[in-house]
Amino acid sequence: MGCINSKTLSRKALLKLVQKRNAVTIIYDEHQEIMNMDLSETSRFSASTGTLQRSQREEEELLFEYSRVVLSDETGSCIPTNASYIDGFKDPQAYIALRTPDSESTISNFWRMIWQHRSKVIVLLDLPEENQYGASFWNSDEESLLQVGKLSIKKFRAHQNHPSFEIMSVLITHEDGATLQVSQFLFKNWQRQDVLPSECDVIDLIFMARLYNESAVTPETLKGFKSPVVVHCSDGLQRSMVFCAVDIGISSISNRGKVNLYSIVSNLRKERYNCLYDANDYGMCYLLLYYYCMFYM
């Protein structure tokens, strides 16, 4: 297996790698090395892994217990979720990644999670299927109100438009009068399989989400607290983790002048089980970092 340090690339080396004729082969071989890594020392799952054949849904529901997000309800009881803490470039638990909520219970837990973590930015990377629980709330053309226990969640219409994403304001109010203002990014052009967004649109999304997260002023931020950015997609394993990997990679390039995507993705796979399992997603990470180096530096 290749040495992780040998895969650290300067900006110039990254550009040269992606421009090589055999770049696809190199990148796909690199991804295969990651997939062959032994994670047995960290593999304490939230569900039994003894079954040889698991459905896609069952595979998506497996989590590492040490990175699982666990909430508390009004009575103090623990509520396990399908979300995982993800470390950022410098900050631990810089993100929370999960599958898009698709039921009454998961949507309720989603907003409890936002409130308890004081998250100011949500990034939604797919358009959820129409369902009786979430359809109206995710619709950016409508204002809506949702009650979750002691929380009242009011969503306003999109207040800023971009060719590929919208930004909606969400106000969460606790029954004791405390509030939390949240910006929800709804990315519209990322299909799961054969239609990918432009590199420019994804990088714009990353920088806009950063801007909103860093500029939001709350009592917590004034004390130095950094809330996690919540990122979700249909399975919580592909698009969400591409977003995290590229955001971390961009920070590495801008701060250190070099990046090691191999190391970044290897670490992400220790935090969210089976994430970035598709070599095409790994290749997309390289393309996005290439585009950033070529046109944003």
UniProtKB/TrEMBL annotation:
Record InterPro entries: Prot-tyrosine_phosphatase-like (IPR029021), Protein-Tyr_Phosphatase (IPR050348), PTP_cat (IPR000242), Tyr_Pase_cat (IPR003595), Tyr_Pase_dom (IPR000387)
Q: Which domain of life is it from?
A: Eukaryota
Q: Which terms does the UniProt entry file under GO BP?
A: anatomical structure morphogenesis; neuron development
Signal peptide residues are none
Every copy of the Tyrosine-protein phosphatase domain together lies at 27-292
Gene Ontology MF, one: protein tyrosine phosphatase activity
UniProt cross-references to CDD domains, sorted A to Z: PTPc
* PANTHER family referenced in this protein's UniProt entry, alphabetically: LD27988P, RECEPTOR-TYPE TYROSINE-PROTEIN PHOSPHATASE
Name the record gives this protein: Protein tyrosine phosphatase
| Annotated source species | Euphydryas editha
